[in-house]
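This part of the workshop introduces the protein records we will be handling. A learned vocabulary of local backbone shapes supplies the integers on the structure line. Getting from the letters to the tokens is the skill we practise here. As an example, a complete record with its sequence and its structure tokens follows.
=====
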Amino acid sequence: MRILLPSQEQQLLSVIRPREPFGARDRALITLALHTGLRSHELTALDVGHVMTWDGFPRQWVEVVGKGGHQRQVPLNAAARQAVIDLVHFNRSRGFAVAGESPLLVTRCHRRLPTRSLRDLIQRYRERADLDVRCSPHTFRHTFASRLASCAPLPAVQVALGHRRLSSTQVYTHTSPAELAAAVARLAGG
């Protein structure tokens, strides 16, 4: 399973130049992906109204349609909400539509960003950052899930990822020998 270490995440984000035509969008997009664990097609399917209220505030939750047409709600933490604000600001400043039914992620031609283009732009930034790990939207999903699994019960991770079976979620639990030893020591009150 591929995940980004915090230093690799920072390395990736640091090579995105905000003054490039879509740099601000791409930085916000990657931040949103890292803090929500959304699949690539769930990200590109987002409309402004999915993530912003009618009066211009980022939502606390985003409702997405995942695999098999199953709907789920994913909470937006502070970093994800800021990414939403940044994306809407980017769209407004570039003359892209920001009405509720407008795509959140758009191309130069004012069309919804295709999932293939999302994968390509992440690959370009990975190469620019000279990361020695493969990097994709699914890597961001794994990174989110792994970090969430370190501080939340497995059923919560299952719900956040939209997995139907807990066994699908268990791959995100990593127990090091030191963590196992500490857990066993806590059992004895030590």
About this structure: The two ends are 33 Å apart (CA to CA). The beta strands are 61-65, 71-75.
